[in-house]
Amino acid sequence: xxxxxxxxxxxxxxxxxxxxxxxxxxxxxxxxxxxxxxxxxxxxxxxxxxxxxxxxxxxxxxxxxxxxxxxxxxxxxxxxxxxxxxxxxxxxxxxxxxxxxxxxxxxxxxxxxxxxxxxxxxxxxxxxxxxxxxxxxxxxxxxxxxxxxxxxxxxxxxxxxxxxxxxxxxxxxxxxxxxxxxxxxxxxxxxxxxxxxxxxxxxxxxxxxxxxxxxxxxxxxxxxxxxxxxxxxxxxxxxxxxxxxxxxxxxxxxxxxxxxxxxxxxxxx
Length: 269
Fold this sequence. Notes:
Layout (H helix, E strand, L loop, with lengths): L24 H14 L2 E5 L2 E4 L21 E6 L9 H10 L14 E7 L6 E7 L7 H5 L5 E3 L5 E3 L9 H5 L6 E2 L18 E2 L5 H4 L6 H9 L4 E5 L6 H8 L15 E4 L2
Parallel strand pairs: 3-11
Antiparallel strand pairs: 1-2, 3-10, 4-5, 6-7, 8-9
Helix pairs in contact: 2-6
């Protein structure tokens, strides 16, 4: 499978664009998100609304402003600072986005999970967090038959729950096993992170926080009470801390050989 291929198959308008009226699927999905961020209260689904809490910080995108391709959001994770027993990033993600681990890894949501990697030659181990890698040429986007999986211009890969039909093609295509299927009815959802039974979900880089000029909850928790292993920022800005570190230190991306161009970098793995 080519990670970067795009297909117009299944276009309702017959124009190869993926949706009626000539508007691309990516543009349609971005318009949906921009409209949600611009409104104080935007109806997403029956009984689910997205609220805007207070004034936006100075670094936030202006209401109605489109995500810009001049920005590429990503993460840098230093495995040497990631403790084996530390799960602060996972707990923060659960609290922020309203999912939980009930002890059934085959069916539970796993927006982010801790992995222990072992060197078979010498037995050395280290831990690292694994989540959606927010690829430029994302296989999940490539195989989605409805356009529910999409990539914003700023590099954040998301799932439109209104369009997702639960086929799980994206789960099979993801080389990082970063997506989960919602098997059970949901209660006590977060207004800023709507979920739905029968749909697929994964890390959103806390897009509601990013659009408000904040950092993802996992990064915040790791810096506050964890080992300080996670750094978030604009990969396209050479003056950003994340770009400087990637340019200075030896980093790697998991399965970079697949050509998907992940937005998550690792050190010391």
